[in-house]
Amino acid sequence: MRFTLKDYQDRAVRSVLERLEDAKDDYRNKDRQVAFALSAITGAGKTVMASAVFEALFDGAEDLAIDGDPSAVVLWVTDDPNLNEQTRFRIMEASDRLDSSRLRIIGDGFDVERLDAGKVYFLNRQKLTGKTFITPGNGRTYTLWETIKSTIEDPARTLYLVLDEAHIGVVSNGAKEGAEEDRSTTKLRLINGHEGAPPAPIVWGISATVERFSVAMKHARDRTTLPNVIVDNAAVQASGLLKDTISLDLPDQAGSFATVLAREASLATREASLLWDVYAEQESLPEPVHPLLVVQVPNKPSTSEIASLLDTIYGAWPELPADAVANVFGDHTNEQFGKHAVPYILPQDVQDATHIRVLLAKDAISTGWDCPRAETLLSLRPAKDQTHITQLLGRLVRTPLARRIDSDERLNAVTCFLPHFDAKTAKSVADVITGVKSGDDGSPSGYGRVLIDPATMLWNEAIPSEVREILAALPSEVTPKTPMRPIKRLLSMAAELAVDELAAEPNIRALNDLYGVLDGQAAQHKELVEAKVDGILTADIKRITANRLSLESTETIRQVEADEQTVDDAYRAATRIFGAALANGYAKKLALARGDDDDDFDIYTAKAAIAALALTPGVIERVEDAASRQIDAWFAEHHASIKALNEERRSAYDAIKQQAKEPQEVDLVVPVSRIEMTNVLEGDKRIVLPVRDRHVLADEAGDYPVGKLRDWEITVLDTEMNRKNAVAWYRNPSSPSKDAVQVPWKDGDRWRSMQPDFIFFSRRAQGDLVASIVDPHGHHLNDALGKLLGLADFAEKYKDRLLRVEAVSKDERGDLSPNGKGTLRLLDLTNPRVRKVVRSSASAADAYRDAGTKYE
Questions:
Q1: Would you state the pLDDT for residue 116?
Q2: Cβ neighbours of residue 506 under 8 Å, at least 6 residues apart?
Q3: How many other CB atoms are found less than 10 A from the CB of residue 469?
Q4: pTM, entire model
Q5: Within-domain flag for 461
Q6: Cβ neighbour number for residue 394 with a 10 Å cutoff
Q7: 369 near 395, Cβ under 8 Å?
């Protein structure tokens, strides 16, 4: 794969491959047809995950410990021919193994007896109903149904049927009229068999919503269903692939405000362009992102109204070129609105047509279409069309650089202007997008946060400049995501160091160091290794001879040389342990060390030696320890240079840190902006949220909203900021982002991350500025003790870099102390005695009772 899979993608790929392996076993050995689905929200990277699955399915994958299936052939079915080409291109972009020769689109000239193993064929379902495909006319030797039949019936081939957008067109016949019935019939014919073709052996559905697919598979004829692979929405959001914030801007009073909000939408897109220009220069990007304004119009728009709207847009954005507007209307025709020529453009071409800055659309544009550079939406749809708006917003949530922008939240947001919506209806849209409730079409959501009329907080120039330096120096640790074998981690880091030219030939250095460890282990365990080599290169054949007359038996043993396949099998197992790069390199080293005149040693002997080392107890542990030590040494040696890289390159090293088995310290990114709600909706009314001053990010008045905090959390905030030495405070983000102080804690065998609520900055008597962590967290919550233990370990590790590390809880029942009901209790985690009590406590309540003091 050209892309490193995100943690959730890696887990999903492994799960899908397990299902496919089980499905093949069911089909080949138990004569069962099987189905399951992969479900993930729009923007999760379903095509990237599919690419990784196909690579492993066809060719095997060392890190997934899977051998390829030489019989595998994939038939990928969609409803839209354009999606086939788009998906094919994305797979080639993601995979370094699947080139154009292995990704075939079934077009009008397609005519083969059977599909080839090791290839993916893309088919839009309409071709299964077209006459040129179901009859042998036009010189066709095989109908498409005959091709599918021959492929399924060939014992040397296993057909994997992939249904993209699997929720569409799988309802039973008669469930709907018209086109839906046609789609249903076609897809179900593939699934159940048709025109003499047997049922598809293995069906893999891919969709954002798989409920209809799952129901259809339960009713499919004689088909076993495996558990679906469900990708957690929160994991997708945390990955940085999706924009964090969707802002809904709407009128604060009744009236017609389309023109006003069109101007605001233009200004917002123009401002986003300037921000991306600055970011591109700051980060040395080859070119900036070119934000797109999507204007969603009614199905029958008025020519004069659209012309007036475009006049407004150009008035607010005077430098916008004349050819910067296009349409994706279903008519597929060029349009003229007053003096504005608006050509048609294919939806899938919009992302790369960066000269297009304003796009006119109607409904949800196109199934499968997305445009990461679309950052502003102006919807002229009436409030009753909220489903169309939520569908379209779901296509605008990908981040332009496929990663979160660490410092500036404005570049992680999409803004939607709704001139025809009131507050109540906008709140309904927000609830659907965030997953609080389902949409009318049953489509899943769960994207980040949706804010109505938010305000942008920028760096507070009223606080001392040293605060920025202290904040940047705060300790923070990332939790492991998908732990990677240390050898592969080391080689990954060597590759990154080479890209950034921070070390000379790091890959050669890394491999040579590991070769040295293997040499030492081979010498230390010489007799055992040689015995294992002999065992691999020879096979003991036992013969038992029975004499029927004497009723006696004799036993003889003879040795025969192992064949090449036996040695290769043993070596393949070793490459899974050591990795192909180390195993292949060391095999070459061993072969060259013996020289050409040694008749007793060849490449197979070298492979056997490596296989023997892999089977020798303790060897892999020594090699992995050496790899881990080298990684730590490189991070220490190159810390300053890595920190000086741009965000994209730093993120590559952060990913390597998250592949460790234990939490790793990372640099905290100082934010320059944050988008926050300044009011909440109660019915049709806006209630202004309370604010506090001296936050590191603030609005133009120097304030920061605190309305989302509970009363006793605000009490903690006010208590700390009323201390005479208080200087500033920071509301630590609740998600484990790079601008958050992250504290790892153990939930059973799994690492999780907590983000303490508050960072307070104060000035000591000698004049220096210091930071403290204060975390109000209810002791009654299920995660309270685990988080206390994590915070205690963090306090012990970083006590020299923090003034205070304190946990606070409210004595709701009055059973934690004699101070009475409703008082606050404090645990000072910089105190060794308190940490000892926390570690020995059965619950957080016990810790507060035994070691807590009154918070005041």
A1: 96
A2: 493, 494, 495, 497, 498, 634
A3: 11
A4: 0.85
A5: no
A6: 22
A7: yes
